[in-house]
Structures are given as structure tokens and as C-alpha cells.
Amino acid sequence: MQSIEQLRGKLLQQRRTLFQEVAQVEDDLLWLEMDVEPEAQERGQDESLIRLLSRMDDRQKAEIEEIDRALVKIAIGTYGRCEVCGKPIPWSRLEALPTAATCLPCAERRAR
Ligand SMILES: [Zn+2]
Questions:
Q1: Which of 2, 47, 50, 72 is the 20 to 30 Å CA partner of 64?
Q2: Distance between Cα 81 and ligand 1 center (Å)
Q3: Are residues 89 and 74 part of one domain?
């Protein structure tokens, strides 16, 4: 059983790995060393972030968006709740997929 802090750490790590895939110059890597909070990002996307995002393909961008959404939900306290039915998402699902926004039954209904 993991704590929400551990899942948060996992999400931040995933986010960093994605950015590292497209980081090329030293400036970008320096920027990655900072612990960027989603709130800080909303205040003003700095140049490094915009540059990195511009190098990402759609899949990578979609992943970053999912991670950021999950991080915001952790910050505001709604993390772990299904966006469709509002029920708590089982921990086992969150551990396997920390970006999960819906419970499994809802995800399956949506996929159909
Ligand atoms: Zn649901």
C-alpha cells in the first residue's frame, strides 16, 4: 500500500522522464532539476517549458496533461475520485496507473 505522497512522487518522476526525453540543451536540464509545481506552471509558463513542450509529440503531450491533471487533483484534494461516477478509485488501480481519472467500470464503459 502506497501513500498519496508516494504516488505524487511517482507522477513527478514520470513527468521529469518525459521532459528529459526531449531536453537537449543544458538550460532545459537545469530547469528539470527544479521541482516544478503545477501551480507555479499556471502562473507563467517559462520559455524552457514552452520549448520542451514544442518538441513533444501528441502522445507525450497527452501524457504530460494527464500527469498535471492528477497533480492538480492531489493539490486540491480530489485525487482518487472517479470523474464519472464520483466513487473512490481503488488504490490498486491508482498504484498501477497513477494518472487514472476514472474507476475501472467507468473507463471500460467509456472505451466502448
Ligand atoms: Zn466511476
A1: 2
A2: 8
A3: no
**For residues 60 and 22, is the Cβ–Cβ distance under 8 A?**
yes
Query: How far is 53 from 57, CA to CA, in rounded Å?
Result: 8
The Cα-based distances of 36 to 39, 91, 94 in angstroms read 8, 25, 22
What integer is the mean pLDDT of 34-59? Answer: 70
In terms of residue numbers, what domain contains 108? 81-112
75 and 88 in one domain? no
| Digit-coded pLDDT (tens) for 57-77 | 999 999 999 999 999 999 999
Q: Both 23 and 62 in a single domain?
A: yes
CA separation for the pair 44, 40 (Å, rounded)? 7
- Cα 10 to ligand 1 centre (Å): 23
Specify the DSSP class assigned to residue 81.
B
Query: Domain total for the chain?
Result: 2
Q: Global pTM?
A: 0.77
